[in-house]
Amino acid sequence: MSKMQAAVLVEPRRFEIMAVDVPSIGPDDALIRVTRTGICGTDVHIFNGHYAADRLPIVPGHEFCGAVADFGRSVRHLRHDMRVVVDINIGCGTCYWCRRNEVLNCAEVVQVGISRDGAFAQYVAVPARLVIPVPDTVPDAVLALTEPVACVVRAARKANVTFGQSVVVFGAGPIGNLHVQMMRLVGAAPIIVTDLSTDRCRMALEAGADAAVSDPTTLKATVMAMTDGRGADIVIESVGSKALYGQAFDLSRRGGHVAFFGITAPGETVPVDILKTVLEEGGLKGSVAGMGEDMHDALTLLAHGRFETNDFTGADYPLDRIQEAFDTLANRSHHLKTQIVMA
Q: What's the predicted TM-score (pTM) here?
């Protein structure tokens, strides 16, 4: 098979389904036959031209699972038709940052579906060392959640969350909901989520949040009431809003921590009161993608049912309807994830 179907984002907000060459592989690579690919918030930013616009045209898609179609002669840990997921972060593998599993800081880093062609296609080629075999018992719809779960695993690590710490999560969309579930797994309490959507606030409560606030005017009062007037130990911004980042500092306690997670437009900044931050020993930490052991840990958690995934697996579209899937995404607030299913 020399040609495959791929959804190429040719310009902001416009996909074309094209017959393109099946990617070639080298001796250390693997060719993955894609089965499912989730639509991520980052994909929406790329679709709208707000992120990585200089990469167009591109085949997006990075939350995927599939099966091994082929592999190079140097590869020993894979076999044909083995079900797999993939770590999408490709660094040089030898630099200071790669050795520390901080691959996004590698000078040579590329990301599948973001800075090189990805998985809104029948096949994708990747370095075999980043291919992770999966248990046969986990459905494809759940496996395709491995990458976003890895992102919240890493965010929890970066934030150094400990038992009994109070957490505020901005956003109850797909990644916000996963943050809520991750915080519950690591023992945070109370967990307060805020989102303008009452549907998504309800789903956050079902996922383990202790409170969900859809009226922004009552958020600070709720946070203060639930933290004995201190403010939250950790505030996670998972929306990507400059205004919400500013508000996050106001909800953080003295000595608290703001987790920067949501992607904004390039160059956007928020003011930080330097003296207040120094005197109160405040902190902030950025995190965006799971990599390395984050992926393996995410897979383990999903395989053992530690995340509630029913709200993530109800909206499927075939590849040839990907334009419709993106155009109507905002109409599906009752579904946390839309996935593209390959024929």
A: 0.95
